[in-house]
């Protein structure tokens, strides 16, 4: 964003961080991997796991929330790994990504990989399977993210890094703990009707129609459903960050 260069100070409101109050290169300059997920508690548990795996922490260690000045998101860091919560849905993760990408820019980070991890609804898979997303698709199975900007509809690509998908699949084979597949991830605008659930407050379709829709999704290559992947993929592509 060329406008950032004209700003005296860039305040990342929802992180409670700012270039005028924090030394971004000192705090985040060594970051190489960013993992994002919905729940703050889950991302804290994740950073504790990563710390132990990297030999940088152990049982009983505490990991302070870098964004403790706000209750919007939580952020934790161990070595070159940053763990950030993003809440639920496209609007919430979009706000977080704008500020995260700016944070990485101000910190002068390079060769960054961002991975979104989290639970999702599987289609045609055993529970507990891991889906590595090839591309995010909308609820009509198109690989695109549609957004209205200044009254105009803008469509952005949602393809994700193919080489990273292959690397992650190879890691899964070496670990051998999870059934892992590469497939498309469908990103919906809500948890209930958008995903064809029958237990929401409103439901104007029947089970047969639901199953027909899910079969179409499966036949198109969809293997799981969630609510954040489309804008995640679009923003990674636009900012030149390797994402998965």
From TrEMBL:
Q: Name one GO cellular component term.
A: cytosol
GO BP of this protein: nucleotide catabolic process; UMP salvage; uridine catabolic process
Chain positions recorded as phosphate binding sites: 72, 116-119
Q: Which residues bind substrate?
A: 195, 197
Provide any one GO MF term from the record. Answer: uridine phosphorylase activity
Q: Note the superkingdom of the native organism.
A: Eukaryota
CDD domains for this protein: UP_hUPP-like
Q: What Enzyme Commission number(s) apply to this enzyme?
A: 2.4.2.3
Catalytic reactions on record: uridine + phosphate = alpha-D-ribose 1-phosphate + uracil
Q: Which Pfam families match?
A: PNP_UDP_1
Q: PROSITE patterns recorded for this chain? A: PNP_UDP_1
User: In which pathway is this protein known to take part?
Assistant: Pyrimidine metabolism; UMP biosynthesis via salvage pathway; uracil from uridine (phosphorylase route): step 1/1
The record, for SUPFAM superfamilies, names: Purine and uridine phosphorylases (SSF53167)
User: Which EC main class describes this enzyme?
Assistant: transferase
Protein keywords:
Glycosyltransferase, Transferase
Where does the Nucleoside phosphorylase domain start and stop, copy by copy? 32-242
Query: What role is this protein assigned?
Result: Catalyzes the reversible phosphorylytic cleavage of uridine to uracil and ribose-1-phosphate which can then be utilized as carbon and energy sources or in the rescue of pyrimidine bases for nucleotide synthesis. Shows broad substrate specificity and can also accept deoxyuridine and other analogous compounds.
Q: What does the sequence similarity comment in the record state about its family?
A: Belongs to the PNP/UDP phosphorylase family.
PANTHER family cross-referenced by the UniProt entry:
URIDINE PHOSPHORYLASE, URIDINE PHOSPHORYLASE 1
**Protein name, entry field:** Uridine phosphorylase
Species of origin: Nipponia nippon (Crested ibis)
